[in-house]
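Dear support,

I submitted the protein below through the web form. The confirmation email said the job was done, but the results page showed an empty box. After a refresh the structure appeared. I'm attaching both so you can tell me whether what I see now is the final result or a partial one.
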Amino acid sequence: MTLRARSTLAAPRCRQQPEKAQQEQGIALLRSLGATVYRLGVSRRAGDWQGTMQTPGLPDVMAFLPHRGSPVRTFVCWEVKAPGGRLRPEQLEFQARCFDAGVAHVAGDLTALMAWLVGAKFLRADQLPAHRQVPAASGDR
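What the results page shows now:
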């Protein structure tokens, strides 16, 4: 089998979007819906310190979405994770505290955020691109 024949038989590979790119697109989406968005920084201390200067477990993005027909806003925390990414113990604890307090918390990629926005009625499923279609039920609150 020649190299050319192999390449035509191989399944096409989709390049996985880095978390940073998904975060930027999610922030743009939230802002387009009228949300006030706060991105938690990842500034690092000078020198060889490898950790960030924020409290462990805090999400990457927090947003206040306008409520339809009411001055009350919806607050959501989004921990951006690449597909297959897992929450660290501190992030799981923060997520649990959010749920206990009735605060929405989404953990996952841009598709997970879109699924939550559809479930919370900020988007309609038919507004999503085909490659971002989401299952009918979402596990995040």
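Response: this is the final, complete result; the empty box was a page-load delay. The chain has four helices and four strands.
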